[in-house]
Q: What sequence folds into this?
């Protein structure tokens, strides 16, 4: 009884041909252990180095509490100087995280410290890639990325537990309508399968990311992450070649997001209650019908 989790494939290096045929085209996750061996960041990006580069900037912080239906999904829980936050996550556990803040914009010299894996694929999007910071024990709730990009997610200065589920499990994961996240009432590490029976038997993959390792996360993958140490990551995003995926991304970023925010603002808890009821009904239906096949 429970999730059926297998280990994500890990390799030291991989050729473009093997990557495209065995991971990119079939959209299968992969960890590349030594993709960063030519990155200056592998050795330069210590906590002290980042503090010197960005330390005085006040940043928004996010916790693991359930989303407030009266606020947008990315509403912050607190603010703190970046340097003070880095000191915090090095000294004690905390559920406070940084995301949607880009240190590289504040310190463009960081652009010289990493390399996009253009030897494996094209279509990389960001001049200023996203960085994510978390204290020991902090959790990124289960979701998929709204823009449906492929992600190369590299971790630094610690370990991170990652659990992935293919997009096809959306209904069984109690995915909420008009959203990219699921019900927040179950714990990925210790789910209540009696209360949420549709979770039982779901197939997924997991890994522990170590310093310098890169996770390839294909488009649409649901992901849950837990910082096992105070540490940080950088995500490089690339388009999928499918125009269907690109059209869905555009819809998510415009129509779906605007509609969802409008309904939250107008109906608040009533709207959120409806979304949760729909998620539960869809999950129960998918379980009865033994979906996905």
A:
């Amino acid at each position: 009884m429970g999730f059926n989790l297998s280990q994500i494939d890990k390799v030291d290096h991989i050729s473009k041909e093997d990557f495209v045929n065995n991971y990119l085209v079939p959209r299968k996750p992969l960890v590349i252990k030594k993709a960063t061996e030519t990155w200056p960041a592998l050795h330069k990006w210590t906590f002290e180095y980042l503090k010197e580069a960005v330390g005085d900037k006040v940043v928004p912080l996010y916790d693991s509490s359930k989303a407030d239906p009266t606020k947008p999904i990315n509403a912050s829980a607190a603010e703190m100087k970046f340097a003070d936050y880095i000191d915090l996550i090095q000294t004690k556990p905390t559920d406070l995280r940084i995301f949607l803040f880009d240190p590289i914009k504040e310190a463009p010299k960081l652009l010289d410290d990493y390399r996009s894996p253009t030897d494996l694929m094209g279509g990389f999007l960001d001049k200023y890639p996203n960085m994510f910071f978390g204290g020991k024990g902090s959790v990124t709730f289960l979701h998929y990325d709204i823009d449906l990009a492929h992600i190369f997610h590299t971790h630094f200065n610690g370990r991170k537990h990652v659990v992935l589920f293919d997009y096809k499990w959306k209904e069984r994961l109690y995915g909420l309508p008009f959203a990219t996240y699921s019900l927040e009432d179950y714990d990925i590490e210790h789910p209540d399968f009696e209360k949420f029976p549709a979770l039982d038997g779901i197939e997924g993959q997991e890994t522990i990311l170590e310093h310098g390792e890169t996770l390839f996360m294909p488009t649409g993958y649901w992901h849950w992450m837990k910082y096992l140490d105070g540490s940080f990551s950088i995500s490089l995003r690339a388009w999928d070649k499918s125009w269907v995926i690109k059209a869905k991304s555009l819809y998510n970023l415009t129509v779906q997001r605007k509609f969802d925010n409008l309904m939250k603002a107008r109906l608040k808890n009533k709207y959120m209650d409806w979304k949760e009821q729909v998620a539960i009904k869809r999950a129960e239906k998918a379980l009865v019908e033994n979906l996905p096949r």
User: Anything to note?
Assistant: The chain has a mean pLDDT of 92. Residues 243-267 form the longest helix (25 residues). The longest strand covers residues 231-238.
